[in-house]
Amino acid sequence: MDTRRAPRAVIDPKVRQVGFFAPPGQAQPSSSPPVSDLSPSSNSLSPVMIPPPRPVPFPAVPLSPLRRPSAGESIPVGSYNPSEFASPTASFSEEAPSPRRAHRGISRKFASSLPSGGFDFAASKPNNFPASSLKTVSVVNTPPGVSAFPDKKGSKAAFAEKDGGPSLEVQCEQSASSKSLKEKTSKAERRALQEAQRAAKATAKAEGSKAPVVASGEVTATNAKPVKASKAPSQKNDISSVVASEKKGGDRPPEKDRKKDVPQPRMQFDDKIRVEKAKKRAVVKQTEAKHRVELFRHLPQYEHGTRIPDLESKFFQLDPVHPAVYKVGSRYLAGDISGGNARCIAMLQAFQESIKDYSTPPEKTLARDLTAKMNCYVSFLIECRPLSISMGNAIKFLKTRIAKLPLTMSESEAKATLRSDIDRFINEKIILADMLIVRHAVTKIRDGDVLLTYGSSSAVEMILLHAHELGKLFRVVIVDSRPKLEGQLLLRRLLGKGLSCTYTHINAVSFIMHEVTRVFLGASSILSNGTVYSRVGTACIAMVAHEFHVPVLVCCEAYKFHERVQLDSICSNELGNPDTISKVPGRKEINYLDDWASNENLQLLNLIYDATPSDYVSMIITDYGMVPPTSVPVIVREYRREHLWI
Amino acid sequence: MWYRSASFILDKQQEERDAVARPESRLLSPTSPISSMAETLQNPNPNPKISAYYQTRAAHHAVVTSDWLAQAQAAVGQHPDDLPPESPSVDSGKPFSVIDEFNNWRKQPDLAEAVAAIRALASVIRSSEATTMMELEIELKKASDSLKSWDTTSISLTAGCDLFMRYVTRTSALEYEDFNSAKSRLIERAEKFGEISYKARKIIAMLSQEFIFDGCTILVHGFSRVVLEVLKTAAENRKLFRVLCTEGRPDRTGLRLSNELAKLDVPVKLLIDSAVAYSMDEVDMVFVGADGVVESGGIINMMGTYQIALVAHSMNKPVYVAAESYKFARLYPLDQKDMAPALRPIDFGVPIPSKVEVETSARDYTPPQYLTLLFTDLGVLTPSVVSDELIQLYL
């Protein structure tokens, strides 16, 4: 049914780039054969893996004349020509680019066990080589790119990385030899060649792991070829070759653009220097909590209770923060607003207020100055409470809107546009989306069902109420957990509408699960691999439900989808106030943990979120319909540019 | 040995026409909301309690071969294998009915129901007397709705109609200024879609050839025209393989398949449905067709597919599904009961006491985790791609 698929081909490949993507040229199935050898290396480069700070674009140009022919000639390697297939190097060069990263550690280990093997070989190599491969050596040496090497040595921009260089050389050799193989080879010759290539690989590895200076000094003396490899001085240039090879792909966006795509790394709070810096900038003075759990040191955790008075006392000093934003921030801090949607709407409305009162200072443009202002507000809000992913998406939306404002637009017009954009976002992406979710989800509730929900999700509440209005006969089990006990609020509202409910704590979930027919869960965010990022405890519920073969339905608006991938709840999470779990409200006699802060050996962990693996999720109900968790990246890809950011 | 005879089927059709409930239907569960909806619509299936889809399947693929049926029907005076007229006579004064057209096409046993529907819809456009695009679209919508309500239990029919509407109306042709050119463009697209759907089976058969290796043993369930095409092509390509056919109770469609395969000189062995686990260890792959492919990537298919998939999964055997892309439906069943019920009578050979309840559901849902690959005319897909395709088509 090619014709039906035609529109997909028409779609600009940029739109379809999600988390991991091949450069657009290679995303096309019709990539020309010469590139085929390079594609794995550039494929392996996902934007997530690029560390953002990279000062100079690497001069990859000299490499290309060297590599291009090799790539072109190594096509026969891919085909199943048995003689070539048998040679280990053939398979090596085929795989070389992609596993390079993974094998680095191994190669280093390997080399340390064989410190001098490489050099021995390097010395003896010329003798072992048959005539044809000697020719290869000379070929390798001739290209201008290679002669340019010494000049590059001084600069940081060395591109022949420590195993990229050698592998490259092996490739050249191999391609040349594969050509010669076809011409005429005796068995002995082939064997010798194989041996040589294998040894070349070993050399490469050994040299790669040597301290660069030493290596270059020694090797220059021994052989001309290894010099190339060892001339690569920097240790961290793993990236550089990838960049280089990818540059040759040609159609990668320029450095600058890519940098923009790469999310700024989150602040790691175990990095002392940066934390100090951040503290100096901070508006809200926060004392960090003591005794944090080792695994979660990278997350911010503060002494609760100290911050609100501090913030209040600073009200008049904080001139850059708009009062509306300040108000929202202080409410976040106090915990008055919780829930992804509520927080997002409150934030957007505060921004709307601030835009209303905004006026461009003289000699500045609205787009730039307002963006700077927004950044300032956002960092203020982050200090109050870390942003949720939904808020991050909303901010991203607002910023793109600001950036896309035409320069010719007058200030009042621009402000009106932005405010209506915000309104539209709230309406379409949150309120209407919720209505759609309700409409979809209600079809999955039958008479006689027992629905379980955890915590308090606004979407789930709307679903339950709507199903009740439709006259469906069902029972609700609300599972709750300490310390927030959010379920009680939901329970109260549902009982008020006359639903029949059961309330229990998460401890009893395995008992209650056998009578449940559907589990409805809310989510703070859904990530690209289908992982549901939600209130802590959700994963537990989902796991028990899965074990009992009860379908788990996750209700989540599409604006909360994110292209990030997360495998555990550690690397990105939020820490709550540890005091809340050490105390039991209303039970004065339980005071065993009263002075826990003074005990060095005790660390309390009050996590806010957890990650539910997609295996436990049967269905995700979103405004685009009911989709399996595997389709989250599809929705992110298809709607991110056109709709989600409007 | 064969309880079911052609006369039995003809009797059944007679009964259907008379809308007389059979004694068995007393046992059926109360009318589902959907079928009651169908009744309110203008052209309901005469007997909504019994799935027309499975009735047709039984008539076409059950033990009684189609030629047998043809003979029998010829005696009655109908010629089902006659090609229906290319375009219905609109000018004859008789109002054009999409259902008649559909039924006309449907009588060909080789033509899938959805393809029949697609062709019927195409002829709706052709014979339409609408003068504006909007009118034509509304007319088309009405026709497709009446087709869908004709048999709500058939997933491929619903999906085929929906896809047709999507495919045909989602074109820039609607912006043509001239209505006639726009209409001819629509007809062109409709015919193209019909053609693609018709050829789908061949494409699938080609795609699946790489997966059938010499010396393999294939387990098939029930009768699927796509699977038969796949096996036929493999036999034509001189592959050496063995087929285990399940019996396919209650309409015994497996017998038909084994019959067809024997004609092709493929070694074939017949199993009763309950012997699947017993013989799974000698099976290399399971091939099944599908009535519908749902959004989760799972399939809805003849009763018994789920248990075969479960057994195959637990023994690490691949389960391949051959299904045309017009069977992709925007449904998402969560479990077995989360579907519109499709019921059919089951003949146990002996009278069943009225106190005994009989499970008469005709199909089950196989979740995606038990399927290995789907062979469709869009390519060989993993189950998760189904949702990808559907999202791109519908949203």
Q: Count structural domains of chain A.
A: 3
The largest contact between protein chains, plus residue counts on each side, is: A-B, 23 and 24 residues
The coarse silhouette of chain A is globular
Radius of gyration of chain A: 30 Å
* Main beta sheet of chain A: 7 strands, mixed
Low-confidence stretches of chain B: 1-11, 19-45, 64-69, 75-93
Any chance you could write out the topology, listing elements then pairs?
The complex is a heterodimer of chains A (646) and B (395).
Chain A: H1 2-10, H2 24-27, H3 39-43, H4 63-73, H5 75-78, H6 82-86, H7 88-95, H8 100-113, H9 117-128, H10 131-141, H11 144-147, H12 149-154, H13 164-183, H14 187-209, H15 212-222, H16 224-230, H17 238-249, H18 255-261, H19 272-281, H20 307-313, H21 323-334, H22 340-356, H23 366-384, H24 389-404, H25 411-442, E1 449-454, H26 458-469, E2 474-480, H27 487-496, E3 500-505, H28 509-512, E4 518-522, E5 525-527, E6 532-535, H29 538-547, E7 552-555, E8 561-562, H30 578-582, E9 609-612, E10 619-622, E11 625-627, H31 632-644
Chain B: H1 6-18, H2 33-40, H3 52-61, H4 66-76, H5 98-106, H6 113-127, H7 133-150, H8 155-169, H9 179-208, E1 216-220, H10 225-236, E2 241-246, H11 253-263, E3 268-271, H12 276-279, E4 285-288, E5 292-293, E6 299-302, H13 305-314, E7 319-322, E8 363-366, E9 373-376, E10 379-381, H14 383-394
Parallel strand pairs in B: 1-2, 1-4, 2-3, 4-7, 7-9
Antiparallel strand pairs in B: 5-6, 6-8, 9-10
Key descriptive features of the protein:
heterodimer; A: 646 residues; alpha/beta; Four Helix Bundle (Hemerythrin (Met), subunit A); Rossmann fold; 4-stranded mixed beta sheet; 53% helix; 7% strand; globular; disordered N terminus; B: 395 residues; 7-stranded mixed beta sheet; 3-stranded antiparallel beta sheet; protein biosynthesis (chain B); initiation factor (chain B); IF-2B-related (chain B)
What does this structure look like?
The complex is a heterodimer of chains A (646) and B (395). Chain A is of the alpha/beta class. Chain A has 3 domains: 32-261, no CATH class; 272-433, translation initiation factor eif-2b, domain 1 (Four Helix Bundle (Hemerythrin (Met), subunit A)), CATH 1.20.120.420; 443-573 and 608-644, 3-Layer(aba) Sandwich (Rossmann fold), CATH 3.40.50. Chain A has 31 helices and 11 strands. In chain A, the strands form 2 sheets. Chain A has a 7-stranded mixed beta sheet with strand order 3-2-1-4-7-10-11, with helices on both faces. In chain A, helix 4 (63-73) crosses helix 13. Chain A is globular and about 75 Å long. The two termini of chain A are 31 Å apart. With 395 residues, chain B is of the alpha/beta class. Chain B has 2 domains: 6-200, no CATH class; 204-394, Rossmann fold, CATH 3.40.50.10470. Helix content of chain B is 45%, strand content 10%. Chain B has helices spanning 6-18, 33-40, 52-61, 66-76, 98-106, 113-127, 133-150, 155-169, 179-208, 225-236, 253-263, 276-279, 305-314, 383-394; strands at residues 216-220, 241-246, 268-271, 285-288, 292-293, 299-302, 319-322, 363-366, 373-376, 379-381. In chain B, the strands form 2 sheets. Chain B has a 7-stranded mixed beta sheet with strand order 3-2-1-4-7-9-10, with helices on both faces. In chain B, helix 5 runs antiparallel to helix 6 and helix 9 crosses helix 10. Chain B is globular. Chains A and B meet through helix 1, strand 11 and helix 31 of A and helix 9 and helix 14 of B.
